[in-house]
Amino acid sequence: MTRIRVALVLAGIAISALVFHAQAPTSQAAYKFTEVVPGVYSAIGTGTMNVGSNSAVIVNKDDVLIVDSHISPESGRAMLQELKAITDKPVRFLINTHFHYDHTSGNQAFPPGVDIIGHEFTRRKLTGDILEKGMFADLLKGLPKQLDDLKARAASEADAATRMRLDQQVRVQTAFASSLKDLKVTPPNVILDDRMTLYRGDREIRLLYLGHGHTGGDLVVYLPKERVLCSGDLLVNGVANLIDGYVNEWPAALEKLKAIDFVDVIPGHGEPFKGKERADWFQVYLRDLWTQGSALHDQNVPAADAAKRIDMTAHKAHYPTITGLGVNLPAVSRMYEVMDGRADR
């Protein structure tokens, strides 16, 4: 399982490199702030720094609430610094939508007096052995080789424009690796099991747990007056990372999500979007994946072979990255964990 997780993490870093390629930075700012509705912003990385996830920034009457803290202490500090471009109000709350490192490793950058709010499952994971095993531990182990490989690609690249992009990726990833040296895993200090409501001036902010999905403790942040949903990785633009997911239960969580009266979505990855159709698409995808995976599991087909045989091409219209037969091995390995009762609850 460790080798599988390493492969997924390194693949994720490679995907980040492609994002750097597509978003050639025009300034040194780490974040692009986009106002979705008055006082509510999405914050997406520009490519000058590895920030991992998106944030949502909610500017209230007297204070600010931020959803997710990004991938490193340095990216968390950059958020707090660059936030001054849109508001001089103090940050009072930080929400962790789930425990994954690309959403929580910036927690320590937030000063005393900022309440970090998360689900009980998220706190349990962040106070556990996250540095010894799992996705983040494997990132730390695999990062030196990933950097060496990236440097070698840059050094051997003949095309000047491509080499320039690779050199930029080397600089970004080197800075990212360096920023992890002072990491102190910082769990939420305010916990909820089901729901919590904050009232900040005339703004109502609901924190909702809808059930097992991307992890065992996903929170969404909902603004009923503005009809804005901050969905974390429970719902993103494409196929979410399934390495800690509950593919069989996730559609039910999305069904509860669809019952919420929202228009605008700020996802944990990708650009903001409107409407609920992506939830429909992903429910269909997940149910198909679980049905095929369950049949192969019941036939005692090993996960590695099942990953090659599962056919998700029927969903290509909604997920263009699907190019043919087969799915990500870590997704199948995780489904087998759930089927065998080995997943955390």
Put the structure in a nutshell:
With 345 residues, the protein is of the alpha/beta class.
Could you tell me the number of beta strands?
A: 13
CATH architecture: 4-Layer Sandwich
Distance between the terminal alpha carbons, to the nearest Å?
A: 19 Å
Summed over residues and divided by their number, the pLDDT gives a mean of 89
Q: In the CATH scheme, what's the topology name?
A: Metallo-beta-lactamase, Chain A
Any idea what the shape is? globular
Which structural class is indicated by helix and strand composition? alpha/beta
Number of helices: 10
C-alpha Rg (nearest Å): 20 Å
Helix content: 25-40%
Name of the CATH first level: Alpha Beta
SSE pattern? HEEEEHEHEHHHEEEEEHEEHHH
As for the number of domains, it is 1
Q: pLDDT below 50 for ≥5 consecutive residues: which ranges?
A: 1-26
Largest sheet, in brief, is:
7 strands, mixed
Report on the structure:
The protein is 39% helix and 19% strand. It is an alpha/beta fold. It has a single domain (2-130, 185-339), classed as Metallo-beta-lactamase, Chain A (4-Layer Sandwich), CATH 3.60.15. The chain is globular and about 60 Å long. Mean pLDDT is 89; it is low at 1-26.
